[in-house]
Amino acid sequence: MPASRPLTFLCLASYEKGQEFLREAKRQGCRVILLTSKSLEHADWPRDHIDEIFYIPDNNKEWNRQDVIYGVSYMARTIKIDKIVALDDYDVEVAAALREHLRIGGMGDTTARYFRDKLAMRAKAKEDGIPVPDFTHVLNYDDIRDFIARVPFPCLIKPRSAASASGIIKVHNEEEVWRALDKLGDRQSFYLMERFVPGNVYHVDSIIQNRKVIFSIASEYGKPPMEVAHQGAVFTTRTMEYGSPDEQALLALNEQVMKSMGHNVGVSHTEFIKGEDGRFYFLETSARVGGAHIVELIEAATGLNLWAEWAKLEAQGDKYKLPETQRNYGGLMVSLAKQEWPDLSGYDDPEVWWRMKKPHHAGLIVKSPNRQRVLDLLNAYTERFYRDFFHYIPPSEKPTY
Asked: What CATH number is given for 200-388 in this structure?
């Protein structure tokens, strides 16, 4: 590449997110091109940090992959693309397909599958000795009957490629299993069935450089995301005690997962559950920053914005050096709100570090060098959120692949 030409980043975003990545990439001197959904044409993109924006027709944020390949290949006739970056979970596979087609370096189809397909990531983890809940592909009926015979209920039927807790079905007996599969029809093979493991759910958020985890931080959800999504609750999560046995175990297990899945460079958000037997089990991973404002939680605790650090890493390559980090504690809470613009001014303790500004949402982050202070504030504020703001909308029953 001629020294005079800046790196060109093609950033894919089928959802409105990653603004700080786009800003930092431009600050790093890169040419920034955004490919996003036509329905997001008027979203709050940092347009002064973006050189060009191209729009893809979408149906509920779903892109026709062949159209994307045609469009980007046409773009590449006159624009030399150096990096393709997927800013959302749903863009990971499209980005991988583009890299394969254009022969651009980065995560290809096989590795991307481990970060999008819940069946593939579980099979790979199990193969490499990482604890996972018992599971089976919803494919061969004899295998399903064997699974039902040996695994106690309840179980979960999960879409292989959906994000977060979307589309998960909880079944309590064999009749419910077959009823759910009948309803799925020809979509069955896009699902897996897994033993439900009750317990606390955790997430580890990481930066990876040259296949090595160079930064990671462990946090614990208040209630499991599936319970928040399906039963309705205020979403909370808080960073774990530094150096505690559970934190150290999670960080070590996360390194095993990153090595197993073959993540080379970028960021990751990975979830684990601690079962009643005291063991941690791997649930799922992704090649993106955590959603639901977890990136702001990590910034409150450490001073690092993972969107910005990811952009620096992509732009600087081997020259990237992780900045000094802080060791504060953070707590995050988010809820749907019955008011269009909830008034958070009454939540005025000095530890309040961030307030959410989004219609029909209430959210904030507290920060302190004292973890117990964070926990106390989260508990008190959560009770107040239920009184002041909380609103619940049941999840859509639209099929998820």
From this structure: 3.30.470.20
Task: For the domain made up of 134-195, give the CATH fold.
Answer: Dna Ligase; domain 1 (3.30.1490)
**CATH number, domain 8-106:** 3.40.50.20
Region 6-33: mean pLDDT is: 97
Cα separation, 220 vs 22, in Å, equals: 29
Phi, psi (degrees; rounded to nearest 5) at 312: -60, -45
pTM for this model (two decimals): 0.95
Residue spans per domain, the chain: 8-106, 134-195, 200-388
**Residue spans of alpha helices (H) in 168-318:** 174-184, 225-231, 245-261, 294-302, 306-316
Q: What is the DSSP letter of 297?
A: H
- Alpha carbon 47 to its chain centroid, in Å, reads 24
HEC string of 124-155?
HHHHCCCCCCCEEECCCHHHHHHHHHHCCCCE
pLDDT in tens, 213-240: 999 999 999 998 888 887 889 999 999 9
Q: In angstroms, rounded to a whole number, what is the distance separating the alpha carbons of residues 309 and 307?
A: 6
Q: What is the side-by-side strand order in the sheet with 266-274?
A: 280-284, 266-274, 200-209, 212-221, 235-239, 329-336, 361-368, 352-355
CA-based angle 255:258:264, to the nearest 5? Answer: 125
Least Cα distance to 94 among 9, 31, 177, 36 occurs for: 36
